[in-house]
Predict the structure.
Amino acid sequence: MKREEALDLLGSYVKNEKMIAHCLASEAVLRDLATHLGEDPDKWGLAGLLHDIDVEITDADPKIHALKGAEILEEKGLDPEIVEAVRLHNEEAGHNMQRHKAFHHALAAGETITGLIIATALVYPDKKVGSVKPKSITKRMKEKAFAASVNRDTIRECEKLGVDLQDFVVISLNAMKKIAPEIGL
């Protein structure tokens, strides 16, 4: 599936602009992470873009979110590895499986860090991701009350990719800075 088709598909299921921005941010992070690791940026980017395709139809219910998304993507003929990564990005869903491949950990960590980066940007006076420094993100990782819904353990799955947290923060932040106007930050 080409990116334009994926954007159309996402837009047919997700209407919330902030959720679309999250998906675009996740795509950017996954593309840059794939490039850093010598993986396929188009494949990883599609997973980032489409990982929350079912968030509105499942009302983000952690018990079923990602299961319906994987079903939709499978029906559309997406690469089975993308479907599996999407299914496993939410380990709370009732699939009784754990992430076990680099792609799975990358999607989970990459989509999760976007929330921490966005929350950090929003406390800056200009509310721009371009103003955020990597040190601010790593500092916020230690503040459990800040963006409390962001799972720090999931972000730390970057280490299962051989990427230390500091480098992961830099890769992710730089990826989001590239698309800042597109995501309104």
